[in-house]
């Protein structure tokens, strides 16, 4: 078992007890797929347990998907056209092999939540990553995306978010010079979007704003908007695609989910402190 796997195991309170008490039924359910005889679906408590396991699996997968090595901006493939005119905005979709590259981290243990964790990674190994490019009034290209916290230089980070339930910052909202770099991935689409490019930067900062602490005035709410406590907790289904979709919607642009863009339709939930007043 890897060190990360051990930490993930330790982070799941009650896992040992669940395994001891109900391991045969849980293992059978997880290995058999969606069956009518699902032992966790026969009672409300079973449904809640199954839901908890699924949520835990996604939270654990977040760590493996979000942790990346710093990227050398100068060494990337700049294969996208830099032609255009000031005000142009383009939605870029590229393939991503993140779930495949990080599959080794998941221990092959026949108990929840590792079974669900591995199943999710396997089901989404063929996915895409979205970013948004635009040309400013001076003719310079920029792009924005959500990436691991240290993957790009700090000077380009305009916001951040945390790993679920830990208070540990794990990703950044970046605004980077130039068009989206393809790295070693394939381009799926490079589509012109009708929107005001001047809205992108303030909306990007709004999404990842983190200048408050829990309990500060103005940090109450219901999680539907950022009150200064950072972006939504990173999860496999709440990722860069969720961020880009949010930018478009807030700018009044409706766009169908791009091919294989996991998280595009997720409604982001921002952290908030319910003990503070609006």
What does this structure look like?
- The protein is of the alpha+beta class.
- It has one domain.
- It contains 7 helices and 6 strands.
- It has a 6-stranded antiparallel β-sheet.
- A hairpin with a 5-residue loop joins strand 2 and strand 3 (141-148).
- Helix 3 crosses helix 5 (114-123) and helix 6 (200-208) packs across helix 7 (240-250).
- The protein is globular.
- Residues 1-42 have low confidence and may be disordered.
Quick summary of this structure?
The protein has one domain. It is built from seven helices and six strands. The chain has helices spanning 3-10, 15-32, 44-66, 98-101, 114-123, 200-208, 240-250, and strands at residues 89-96, 127-135, 141-148, 157-162, 169-177, 187-192.
Keywords, separated by commas or semicolons:
disordered N terminus; 278 residues; alpha+beta; six-stranded antiparallel sheet
Q: What's the arrangement of secondary structure elements?
A:
Blueprint: H1 3-10, H2 15-32, H3 44-66, E1 89-96, H4 98-101, H5 114-123, E2 127-135, E3 141-148, E4 157-162, E5 169-177, E6 187-192, H6 200-208, H7 240-250
Antiparallel strand pairs: 1-2, 1-6, 2-3, 3-5, 4-5
